[in-house]
Amino acid sequence: MTAAPVLSLEGVTLDLKTGDDYVRILRDVTFDVAAGEIIGIVGESGSGKSMTALSILQLLPPKARLTAARIGFDGADLAGLRPAELRKVRGRRIGMVFQDPMTTLDPVVQVGRQIDEAYRIHHPRAGRAEAREKSLAMLRLVGVPDAQNRAKQYPHQWSGGMRQRAVIAMALVNDPEVILADEPTTALDATIQAQVLDALMRARDELGVAVVLITHDLGVISQVASRVVVMYAGGVVEIAGTRELFADSRHPYSAALIHSRPGAHRRGEPLVAIPGRPPLMSDLPAGCPFAPRCASPYKSERCVTQRPALEPSVDGRLSACHYRDEPQEVIA
């Protein structure tokens, strides 16, 4: 990574209250995001991807217990900020794009007016004309045609892909340094998905914003991300450049994810699913969390009894596997 990190997570750990007990949802999550970089976070449902993003801005359930060595952003530690200080960061310097735009957009308020309000919240001295000019500029940036007239419409008059572009425009309107995009292309068809990804790439190219893209779709990651953080059972198991990850994974879970994706097989061959299911966060095994599902020929008793740390392999890539220096071939 050539650019200096704009966001840096070090040892982020999160416990959620369930009944009378706390359950550890995130374990020692550590990675950096460079200015102007699109980094992908991938993993199965329940791996901790979305909770990682929510932990950055501390948009957490009641009684959540967040401990972190550091969530570094512009010289500050977000984990130690008071609520009033965090409000100056949320939406202003770090924007959030959620999976379903209808949970973000108010159905009875014009789209443009909602983006105007997002700007004026953080710029209270701005007038209506200034806010509208900024909103229209962002709508045009993300590819909304006839933005001036479309801004006067209501969310139900926009398609799903267009609504998602509006939410991206809302996240960009305050010129943030980072955008956290949580499954922004899920439930969209391939054509609209490509348009939404193009909007994120335009934001990166024209505004220099860094994007943390959370998705279960490895095809999406291969198109836009320069690096990938692979998560499993609440922890990071591999961090690698996108090309390196797809060509030569250093963790058997990463290799299994890539092998099981549609398009990874010759025509007519069945998809190969990862056997078993992810462990319950309340009942993780003593060793590697992936060991019960691992089909690596290198799997040993050590995998079952000792949890591997996230450490560099011989080529410098980070992997939480005891056999990170061995080729991770998938045994179907």
UniProtKB/TrEMBL annotation:
Q: Name one GO molecular function term.
A: ATP binding
Where is this chain's protein located in or outside the cell?
Answer: Cell membrane
Q: Does the keyword Nucleotide-binding apply?
A: yes
Q: What kind of membrane protein is this, topologically?
A: Peripheral membrane protein
SUPFAM superfamilies per the UniProt record, alphabetical: P-loop containing nucleoside triphosphate hydrolases
ABC transporter domain: which residues? 7-258
**Matching InterPro entries:** AAA+_ATPase, ABC_Ni/Peptide_Import, ABC_transporter-like_ATP-bd, Oligopep_ABC_C, P-loop_NTPase
Q: What keywords does the record list, in alphabetical order? A: ATP-binding, Cell membrane, Membrane, Nucleotide-binding, Transport
Q: Does the keyword Lipid biosynthesis apply?
A: no
Coarsely, its chief localization is: membrane
The similarity annotation says:
Belongs to the ABC transporter superfamily.
NCBIfam families, per the entry: oligo_HPY
* Protein name per Swiss-Prot or TrEMBL: ABC transporter ATP-binding protein
**Organism source for this protein?**
Pseudolysinimonas kribbensis
